[in-house]
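cron nightly-structures :: item 1 of 1
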Amino acid sequence: LYLTGVQLEVGSQATTFEYRSIAEELNRCQRYFISGMAAIGSMYNGFGGAQVQGVYVTYPVIMRASPTLTFPTNHSSTNVVNSDLTFHKSSTGFSYRVNLIGNGNFNRRSTYHATAEL
């Protein structure tokens, strides 16, 4: 038995069936949870330590509220200390910063999860 295109509602009056594209459903879901990659580098740090480098990560959709950010996976890091620092977090994105150590090339790539659940 296969059923498709079924819509159940409470009440005595039926409404027209709502068709949404896969892209529209994804956008609606991403208002609550987004997972992506935050990356800084690679470039040469000729000034040594005590430098902060950053980038602004923009979400693909505006989230329903300012989310909670976590960084479960660090994919790469060179000449970086105090990494995965976030500032100016909002429903549209966040600034991602790292503190550099020593001279030479640096990079940092981490997976992030942004959660704005009810």
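cron nightly-structures :: done
The longest strand covers residues 33-45.
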